[in-house]
Write a structure and sequence with these properties.
The complex is a heterodimer of chains A (about 260) and B (about 325). Chain A has about 260 residues and is an all-alpha fold. Chain A is globular, with a radius of gyration of 19 Å. Chain B has about 325 residues and is an alpha/beta fold. In chain B, strands 6-7-8-3-9-10 form a 6-stranded mixed beta sheet, sandwiched between helices. In chain B, a hairpin with a 2-residue loop joins strand 9 and strand 10. The longest helix of chain B is centred in the last third of the chain and has 24 residues. Chain B starts with 8 loop residues before the first strand and ends with a helix. The chains are: A mainly alpha (about 260), B alpha/beta (about 325). Chains A and B meet through helix 1, helix 4 and helix 11 of A and helix 2 and helix 3 of B.
């Protein structure tokens, strides 16, 4: 019970701090919209096609999650190291990886609010139509578990190497082109498609499109093995990510560099 | 838990060591076989020059750095083996950092740290209110910390460290960067914590007057080792004895000689003050004879009240001389 409370406490704090930066968040929303429309123009060869935008919106929204989670994990940890609050968190009686999960929940909530606002504005202004299905929510949650697992790896690396902000940014941007946000992975060269399918969110984007655009039910996705693949990837990323984070935290304590920034 | 729970020891450090290594295979010993017992309710000062190893020791006590050797027990809980319980024993404010969330209010910070330390909301609220009233910050509880003065921010950081009512309070440079007034408030607060709330308080500071005013016992670290660990008064008497001030009528210029080479000489309005160590009666009489020979009138000879700064400098100077001597011997 105490553990759950501590996790939710971390979530609450994350939301309070995010509220303090609402102006910056609003500007980010505007930027997201401009970039999305720009991408729509490029993909549509100078024209905005509603069908194409519907397809791209799902991928782009998932990429926004990737970007927020990957860059945010790194930036938040460095910021906390600088403020000295990171060391305070490590002095909690509750294991730090549980606090990390609580913090991830805050990131997920704030990112969802931002992305929902962005998506609603796009859907309304550009007359893009997506039918929301509960199956999509299941796929989304499983995908997020994998994405946060990947975020834990970045967070762990931040504890040891500190200056991984550029790498996190590079990784997040590379995902825009590699996770099928803009172009279907099937159109990639075979070797690149193989690499892309191992990345977090790639399989999630494929399945989200299958459920939200092609109206495929979950049992069909389970039957063809694609949902199983997503589940396996997410479990590996989430579990592996936590293990990597715990290992990195131990290493940082051994090196005496936990509070460095 | 072990027998320390029922003993009077709050902190027990045994054979503690920390060796850092780098990729080129070079090793640096930051803490070298430190043994220390701090009693419950004691106000303990931890002194040392920069790089002496005190922050590393403190961080090992807090579980933030893993020791190479040795173990640390906080009220009987092993920091390495029973991390959760050990962390419930301490409240910590670390050096040079904020320790609290500046974008949040004082109250939000207290509630957050209360929950982080495992307190229920009800207890956090009760303690938060009492701490803020005690620290005279209750009226500012809903203000964002960023807008507080440095002294107020530091008081909130201490309140957050105390929110779960830990028996041990660890403060790394608590008065660093504070103005005179804020430092006085901080000193009074720390005194109250020790006297009224019977907390074990561990303080590291470069401001030795702060340590002298607050601590009952002091340990001095040098190059990772504890070179002195005594009650403050004992330390002052032991290492501060033999300091004299000699007041002479007239200006002393031109009369310097070997007997006076270690003395501080000040000349003010026709009076000369000689301050330094006189470790034997013979040395005192020899010196007075020299003064008489110069035809200068002796006004007074008085033993000086020792102060911690002098003791500290003396001890560290001694250690450095020993180090230099060893280096020369090794080189030869």
């Amino acid at each position: 019970m105490t553990t759950l409370k501590t996790m939710l406490n971390e979530t609450y704090k994350g939301l309070l701090i995010a509220w303090n930066y609402k102006f910056e968040t609003f500007l980010q929303l505007v930027m997201m919209g401009i970039v999305f429309i720009g991408i729509g123009f490029i993909i549509g060869g100078g024209q905005v096609s509603t069908g194409q935008l519907t397809y791209t919106l799902i991928g782009y929204s998932m990429w926004l999650y990737s970007s927020i989670v990957i860059s945010g994990m790194c930036r938040d940890l460095l910021g906390e190291a600088q403020a000295g609050t990171l060391e305070q968190i490590f002095m909690s009686p509750v294991p730090v990886f549980l606090i990390l999960i609580g913090r991830s929940l805050a990131t997920l909530i704030t990112a969802t609010i931002n992305i929902l606002l962005f998506a609603v504005v796009i859907l309304w202004t550009l007359k893009v139509n997506i039918s929301l299905q509960w199956q999509g929510l299941v796929i989304f949650i499983i995908t997020m578990a994998g994405l946060f697992g990947f975020g834990f790896i970045i967070a762990g690396m931040t504890l040891i190497f500190k200056r991984v902000g550029e790498l996190a940014g590079l990784t997040a941007n590379a995902l825009l082109f590699l996770n099928g946000s803009m172009l279907p992975v099937e159109q990639f060269p075979r070797w690149l498609a193989l690499v892309a399918k191992t990345l977090p969110t790639t399989q999630g984007i494929i399945l989200l499109r299958d459920t939200l655009l092609k109206m495929q039910p979950l049992y069909e996705l389970w039957k063809d093995g694609s949902l199983l693949l997503l589940c396996s990837q997410s479990i590996i990323y989430f579990g592996g990510g936590l293990l990597v984070f715990i290992w990195c935290a131990r290493k940082a304590k051994l090196q005496g560099t936990l509070g460095y920034y | 838990m072990n027998e320390n729970n029922i003993t009077n020891t709050a902190v027990e450090i045994n054979s503690l060591g920390k060796i850092y290594g780098n990729s080129s295979g070079k090793h640096f010993t930051a803490v070298d076989n430190v043994n220390l017992d701090i009693r419950k309710g004691e106000v303990f000062g931890f002194l040392g020059s920069n790089g002496a190893g005190k922050t590393t020791t403190i961080k090992m006590m807090c579980g933030l750095i893993t020791p190479t050797t040795g173990r640390i027990l906080l009220n009987g809980c092993d920091v390495a083996l029973d991390h959760g319980e050990a962390m419930r024993q301490i409240g910590v404010v670390l050096e040079g950092t904020r320790n609290i969330y500046w974008p949040l209010t004082a109250w939000q910070n207290l509630m957050y740290f209360g929950s982080l330390k495992g307190c229920s909301r009800k207890i956090s609220k009760e303690r938060g209110e009492s701490l803020l009233k005690e620290l005279e910050l209750w009226d500012r509880r809903n203000d964002i910390i960023r807008n507080f003065s440095r002294g107020m921010q530091q008081r909130i950081a201490i309140a957050c460290a105390l929110i779960a009512d830990p028996p041990i309070l660890i403060l790394d440079e608590p008065t660093l960067g504070l103005d005179v007034e804020a430092m006085q408030i901080m000193k009074a607060l720390l005194k109250r914590l020790a006297q009224d709330y019977k907390k074990t308080v561990i303080i590291t500071s470069h401001q030795l007057d702060v340590v002298q005013a607050l601590c009952e016992r002091v340990a001095i670290m040098h190059k990772g080792k504890i070179i002195a660990d005594k009650n403050l008064n004992e330390l002052l008497v032991l290492f501060g004895q033999g300091y004299y001030q000699i007041k002479i009528q007239g200006v002393f210029n031109g009369h310097r000689n070997d007997e006076l080479k270690d003395f501080i000489i000040k000349e003010e309005e026709g009076v000369t003050l000689l301050t330094g160590v006189i470790d034997s009666q013979t040395k005192l009489y020899t010196l007075l004879d020299k003064i008489r020979e110069k035809g200068m009138a002796l006004l007074s000879v008085s033993p000086l009240e020792p102060d911690l700064e002098e003791v500290f400098l003396k001890l560290v100077k001694n250690e450095r001389e020993i180090d230099n001597h060893d280096n020369i011997k090794n080189y030869a």
